[in-house]
Design brief:
The complex is a heterodimer of chains A (about 650) and B (about 675). Chain A is α/β, with parallel strands linked by helices and about 650 residues long. Helix content of chain A is about 60%, strand content about 10%. Chain A folds into 3 domains: about 55-220 and about 365-385, no CATH class; about 225-335; about 420-655, Rossmann fold (3-Layer(aba) Sandwich). In chain A, helix 22 (about 585-600) links the parallel strand 7 and strand 8. The relative contact order of chain A is 0.10. Chain B has helices at about 25-35, 40-55, 55-95, 100-145, 150-155, 160-170, 180-200, 200-250, 250-255, 260-310, 315-360, 435-445, 470, 485-490, 500-510, 510-515, 535-545, 565-580, 595, 615-620, 625-645, 660-670; strands at about 380-385, 415-420, 425-430, 450-455, 460, 475, 555, 585-590, 600-605, 610-615. In chain B, helix 3 (about 55-95) packs parallel to helix 7 and helix 10 runs antiparallel to helix 11 (about 315-360). Chain B is elongated, with a radius of gyration of 36 Å. Chain B starts with about 25 loop residues before the first helix and ends with a helix. The chains are: A alpha/beta (about 650), B alpha/beta (about 675).
């Protein structure tokens, strides 16, 4: 029964189904908050009991520091390794800071202005002790620094890798192409920002806070009224700084938006270079770029003014405090409550107290940004993966899988058939994409799914490969509900060849081997041969060892598709799901692809999302999808003879193809 | 054709032409900088560029910084004096002269306030200076992108060019923010040394040991750490590349169940980065406590020496306090010099990349001729040859215009000659890599031929005045490029056109209906690269952009490939009518037979040469290559249709006819 209630996706967004999305080459600066956060936050609670098992509460934007730390510890436990020793070292490091004011005070009060005049012996002793203390402090600081770097970088690397793995399990990666930039930022800039902060500000933050506390204690020891005076000066300043911080973060947010605008405008002048030239739009483009550059600069400058104000205000406050301490100090001293040494030492202590305040204002902003980045990474890790391997569910003792056998099932051997039983699908926030689809694909049949853009064709392919699960109903392959099939069994037997035939920046052999990691070069060459591509392969400069370049850029779109087909052939699946390529290739390559497809689908069950009706003509069964429903089914010959959607599609298509 | 969006400050010039924005004498300065050997000197020369360009801001920030530095030194002097003249006597005698105490307190405050003022001007002016320099160079770099020929663009990847304008400019001007601070620190140190010498020569000697040591430590640190951070930068880029690639290929990774292997690959890069960060952290971990300990040792030395001098009555208590205080105050600002130095290697690398763009030559030159006629133009090519730039273009084939990717870097075009007569439709076809897209870019003078001439109405395109080509020729590329703007602006691109004209063009491009349905009609924002539209819709907008100009020569580079076949048929019919109505000569690159069928003449390219030229039916007979190319697809379709139509199995059970399809296909088409 639980099997019939598939874990419903947590936070998918309506993706522009089958629609080309931005392939902008822009790096994502500081990463815009990915849309999935908003979607997750607005998700109706409690609706999906099946998925709610281990779904953590949706992290709120205003999460406290402490709960972030707890989340971090849960996800990267080594973050707190040896924290006791490190804190002890930090204590030594900060206590060491008071050595100088203490020595100055001793020297002044007892060494040079003591009752017996100058006491060189005492000065030497005090200085020697201080020197030893300084060396020890430096050593402790060094060890603490290295420990902090090691632990924090280790924890960040763990977080990075875990987030990377987890993102691959999130269906939004394959559904909402536009979210990819944001997801990439989670494992790159967000973590980098944190690590950058820890290198440059993090240690300073730890030491500064300690230094302020220690300085305060000592100041209290020397003179509590003077300490009170200092605090009276600085407390309002701290409150004012909080207000400034808020304004500053608004201004920085504007800066980040402006960077995005600027990069967008600059990239138009690069990516659109040919259009700009062909239409003489240089001046227009230049104006746009200049405007965005100027807007960026002005946003930066506005933020900078605020920073300068905050800093000099801090300095001004400390000037007030210093003057006040001189005034109050002398009056206390005259009353016999304070010695010269103590008063001077107090003035020294104030530099110890003021500097951390200054540094804190400097690093707090970076710190807040880094923390925001860290929270985004933790949020991603806490987003439940919507499609889960049943093999893992039982290991976790997950309630959703416990009723349905031991960690999922394998697909039956041999040819596979496909059944859609009242399958309904809707994206979390959108209207239904598929309304109760029923269909059966017999083993080893070639099926073409046709329909206009947005009809739901691609959704069928994604449900078949379990890139997502139906909202209602069930998909069965070889009689087994897809949600119960172990991924180890599913991924080898059911293979999808996506539209764009994505290639990695490696050789052809490496890319094909992706289908079966153990394959030798000879087996790969044989796979090309089996689908009739031996001659194409032979024509390449280095055969299977030919490098394909970034995203396969050294090959044409059609050639990339050929490699993708060989990859599928090598994987040797029993069910092939093909999303037909739409980009135009020259007829010779197209014929090659067509022939390779025929070879590839031979003896296998195949479901092709057809964008060309020539594919439908060769299929055993044609399914016509319109507005999320199967409106017609039959062979091409049947359908073309009946009035209906298919006939309409076909006539316009043949008008285009055979106008001669 | 002046565009309405012209920058008001620029001199009047045609919409297509932009001037560079480099400061006068930039090329000379660049040569001088590149001729300097040491990184630090080169860095200083680069900073000098900023000083010259933003004199006033620089002066203001140095003024602020020097004020800050002098006030810092003064504050230690004042504190010493206050101790000696007010604190010590008051506390010793048990009563104070309140007038002098108040003025002492006021003096302490005044010096502190001066520090604050200095700090404000330094921070503010230095920041503004940095952002202004960044903005100047970003504008200059982008201006070059707009000026330099397409051939130059083809040699550089998009990513590199974007990073030139953003990250590299940022790196270039990274040292300019702390630079005025460092200059001010030098002033401060000079003042401090003066004060020390004036106070006591022996205490000054301590200073002469400690200050240079701090300087040396800073330099050593910068030297040690900059290669480590360079490595960190590299590894960050690597981590990012792996993540991008893996997520871009997510569908493949997921459907083949390779997540674990991808994670292992990512983990390798992430762990390398982690180790590099820790290595850099170790160096920093040593440096920070040393930098702090050194001035503290200075203070201790001052106390010992000072106690001796007080004992021998050569020094007052106030002097001692003053010098000790000075040492604690100076420790922090001295680091500013280190900040400048440590940013220099990065800055020099940024300079290398940015100045390469700014000094690049090869802007398209224009002639003075103007095309006299109106209506469809005659296009004539004679002996045209074109070769892609050599090995200095890093990745060769990867950067060519879409579609034309050849394995062998031979001439892309050789000895191409043909004529398109006014009002006629000429189709250009050939296999992938035959040179079609290259040819098209010559027709719109995106590039100039290495040999031969391209003439419109008898005028060599190179002899036409600026704006001459763009006003006569409109090119629609294979990949429709839309700007992040409204539908209307994407079509007019700054021309002042009435809406009716825009709608006419949209109608002809079969785009009127979907544009009407858009929420804002013509004013709908299409998003970056037109993301909110489908590929076919983008292509139709791009087509309308060309048609609205009523070009005398319309060049379509497979411009309807993503359009629904039904819609494409209507567009083609409209274009056909356009040709026969006699307003444009049309050159169309096509694969699809339906498109080619529209043409009056066909040019068939093979390996960059015209292999055949004539009417479609003539070529089918006369050119075996052409016949094979054009009919391969159709014969395949025809052969497959026959069995499917005649004896397709009514039971949908098994694939009995599958192999037969394959075999028939094989025999007829590929043998």
């Amino acid at each position: 029964m639980t099997a019939a209630t598939p874990p419903v996706s947590g936070d998918e967004r309506p993706a522009a189904d089958g629609r080309p999305v931005s392939t902008s080459a822009l790096p994502a600066p500081a990463g815009p908050i990915p849309p999935q956060r908003g979607a997750a936050a607005t998700a109706p609670p409690g609706g999906d009991a099946a998925a709610g098992g281990d779904a953590p509460d949706v992290p709120s934007a205003r999460e406290g520091l402490w709960s972030t730390a707890r989340r971090l510890r849960r996800l990267a436990p080594q973050a707190t390794n040896g924290i006791g020793v490190t804190l002890l070292l930090a204590l030594i490091a900060t206590v060491g800071k008071i050595v100088i004011p203490l020595t100055v005070q001793q020297t002044l009060d007892r060494g040079v202005t003591g009752p017996d005049g100058v006491d060189l012996g005492l000065v030497r002793t005090a200085v020697t002790i201080a020197a030893v203390a300084i060396v020890m402090t430096a050593a402790a600081t060094y060890v603490m620094n290295v420990r902090l770097y090691k632990v924090s970088e280790g924890a960040l690397a763990t977080l990075r890798v875990r987030a990377f793995r987890h993102i691959h399990d999130l269906s939004m990666l394959t559904q909402a192409t536009q979210a990819r930039g944001g997801l990439t930022a989670r494992v790159t800039t967000d973590v980098d920002q944190m690590s950058q902060f820890l290198q440059f500000g993090g240690v300073m933050l730890v030491v500064s806070v300690g230094q302020m506390i220690v300085a305060t204690v000592l100041m209290l020891v020397y003179s509590w009224p003077l300490t009170l005076l200092v605090y009276v000066c600085f407390v309002p300043m701290v409150f004012a700084t909080r207000g400034f911080q808020r304004r500053l973060s608004t201004r920085y947010a504007l800066v980040r938006r402006r960077v995005g605008d600027m990069l967008g405008a600059v990239s138009e002048s690069v990516v659109g270079a040919h259009v700009v030239r062909a239409y003489g739009a240089q001046r227009r483009t230049a104006t746009r770029v200049d405007d965005t550059v100027e807007a960026y600069r002005s946003a930066q400058s506005r933020a900078q003014v605020l920073v300068a104000v905050v800093f000099s205000a801090g300095e001004l406050v400390s000037a007030v405090a210093l003057g006040g301490v001189v005034l109050l100090g002398v009056s206390l001293g005259v009353g016999g409550h304070l010695s010269t040494g103590r008063l001077v030492a107090f003035l020294f202590l104030m530099t110890l107290f003021v500097m951390p305040v200054q540094m804190l204002t400097e690093v707090l902003n970076d710190g807040a940004n880094a923390l925001a980045g860290l929270r985004r990474v933790l949020d991603i890790l806490d987003t439940p993966s919507d499609v889960r391997d049943p093999a893992e569910l039982d290991v976790d003792g997950d309630a959703g899988g416990s009723g349905s056998g031991s960690g999922g099932r394998d697909l039956p051997p041999g040819s596979l058939d496909v059944t859609f039983d009242q399958v309904m699908f809707r994206y979390r926030t959108g209207p239904p994409v598929l309304h109760g689809i029923d269909l059966r694909v017999p083993p080893r049949a070639r099926v073409a799914v046709v329909g206009e853009t947005g009809s739901g064709k691609t959704t069928i392919a994604k449900l078949l490969t379990r890139l997502m699960d139906p909202t209602e109903g069930e998909v069965r392959i070889g009689g087994v509900p897809l949600t119960e099939v172990r991924f180890s069994s599913l991924r080898g037997r059911v293979v999808m060849v996506p539209q764009d035939g994505f290639l990695f920046d490696a050789t052809i052999a490496d890319n094909v081997r992706y289908g079966r990691p153990s394959a030798t070069d000879a087996e790969i060459t044989a796979a090309f041969g089996r689908i009739g591509l031996a001659d194409w392969l032979a024509g390449l400069p280095a055969g299977v060892r030919t490098a394909v370049g970034e995203s396969g850029g050294l090959l044409s779109a059609g050639e990339r598709q050929l490699v993708a087909l060989a990859r599928a052939e090598l994987a040797g699946p029993d069910l092939l799901v093909l999303d037909e390529a739409t980009s135009a290739v020259d007829p010779a390559t197209e014929v090659r692809i067509g022939q390779a497809l025929l070879e590839l689908t031979h003896g296998r069950t195949s479901v092709t999302i057809a964008h060309r009706l020539s594919t439908a003509e060769t299929a055993d069964l044609v399914l016509v999808v319109d507005a999320g429903r199967v409106v017609q089914r039959g062979t091409h010959a049947d359908l073309v003879a009946q009035p209906g959607v298919y006939q309409r599609l076909h006539s316009s298509w043949s008008a285009g193809i055979a106008a001669l | 054709m002046p565009a309405p969006g012209d920058a008001p400050d620029g001199p009047p010039s045609p919409g297509g032409h932009v001037d560079h924005l480099n400061p006068p004498g930039f090329a000379q300065s660049a040569r001088a900088i590149d001729g300097t050997r040491s990184v630090i000197w080169r860095g200083l020369r680069i900073l000098w560029l900023a000083v010259r360009e933003e004199r006033r801001l620089f002066a203001l920030s140095v003024f602020g910084s020097a004020l800050f530095g002098l006030a810092t030194v003064a504050s230690s002097y004042v504190l010493g004096e206050v101790t000696q003249r007010v604190i010590v006597p008051s506390l010793r005698d048990g009563h104070a002269a309140w007038g002098s105490v108040v003025s002492a307190a006021l003096l302490v405050f005044a010096v502190g306030a001066t520090r604050a003022v200095g700090m404000f001007f330094r921070r503010f002016a230095a920041g503004v200076l940095q952002y202004r320099m960044q903005a100047h160079y970003r504008r200059r770099v982008t201006r070059q992108y707009l000026r330099l020929p397409l051939a130059w663009h083809q040699r550089h990847s998009t990513g590199a060019l974007l990073s030139n304008a953003n990250a590299d400019v940022e790196a270039l001007w990274a040292p300019i923010a702390p630079f005025p601070f460092a200059v001010g620190v030098v002033v401060m140190l000079a003042a401090a040394v003066g004060l020390l010498v004036a106070t006591d020569p022996l205490l000054a000697a301590v200073g002469f040991v400690v200050f240079p040591l701090v300087g040396v430590l800073n330099l050593t640190y910068s030297r040690l750490v900059s290669p480590l951070f360079a490595r960190v930068q590299e590894l960050r880029a690597e981590v990012s590349t792996v993540a991008h690639e893996s997520f871009d290929g997510a569908l493949v990774v997921k459907t083949l169940g390779r997540e674990a292997d991808e994670t292992a690959r990512f983990r390798r890069s992430a762990e390398q980065l982690r180790d590099a960060m820790i290595r850099a952290g170790r160096v920093r971990g040593v440096f920070d406590p040393l930098m702090e300990a050194l001035p503290n040792f200075g203070v201790l030395a001052v106390l010992v020496v000072g106690a001796h001098r007080i004992g021998s009555a050569d020094l007052s208590v106030g002097d001692l306090v003053r010098v000790a205080y000075l040492f604690t105050l100076l420790a922090f600002p001295i680091r500013a010099i280190g900040w400048v130095i440590s940013e220099m290697p990065r800055s020099v690398v940024g300079w290398g990349r940015v100045s390469a763009v700014l000094t690049a030559e090869g802007e398209q030159q224009f002639g003075t001729e103007h095309l006299a006629g109106t209506g469809p133009a005659t296009l004539r090519l004679d002996g045209v040859g074109y070769r892609y730039p050599g090995p200095d273009g890093a990745a060769g084939g990867a950067e060519r215009p879409e579609g034309d990717k050849e394995a062998v870097p031979a001439a892309a075009l050789a000895d191409v000659a043909f004529e398109a007569r006014p009002g006629k439709v000429l189709a250009v076809t050939g296999r992938t890599g035959a040179g079609k897209s290259t040819l098209v870019s010559l027709l719109a003078r995106l590039v100039d031929p290495d040999e031969g001439t391209v003439r419109v109405d008898g005028a060599d395109l190179r002899d036409l005045a600026a704006g001459g080509v763009t006003s006569a020729v409109a090119l629609v590329a294979q990949q429709a490029f839309l700007f992040d703007d409204t539908v209307r602006a994407n079509i007019t691109l700054g021309l002042d056109l009435p809406d009716d004209t825009v709608w006419d063009a949209l109608r002809l491009a079969q785009a009127d209906r979907f544009v009407e349905a858009l929420p804002g009609g013509l004013d709908t924002e299409v998003g970056e690269r037109g993301t909110t539209l489908s590929g076919g819709q983008r292509q139709r907008i791009a087509l309308a952009r060309a048609l609205v100009r009523r070009p005398r020569l319309l060049v379509l580079d497979d411009a309807t490939s993503s359009v629904d076949p039904r819609v494409e048929a209507s567009i083609l019919a409209g274009l056909r009518a356009l040709g026969s109505a006699g307003s444009s000569t049309v050159v169309v690159v096509a694969h699809r037979r339906a498109t080619i069928a529209l043409a009056d003449e066909v040019v068939y390219l093979e390996s960059g040469r015209v292999a055949a030229h004539g009417r479609h039916d003539e070529l089918l007979v006369g050119s075996p290559g052409y016949a094979e190319l054009l009919t391969a697809y159709e014969r395949a379709a025809a052969d497959l249709e026959a069995p499917a139509g005649l004896d397709a199995p009514r039971d949908l059970g098994l694939d009995t006819d599958g192999p037969r399809h394959g075999d028939a296909f094989d025999e007829e088409v590929l043998s």
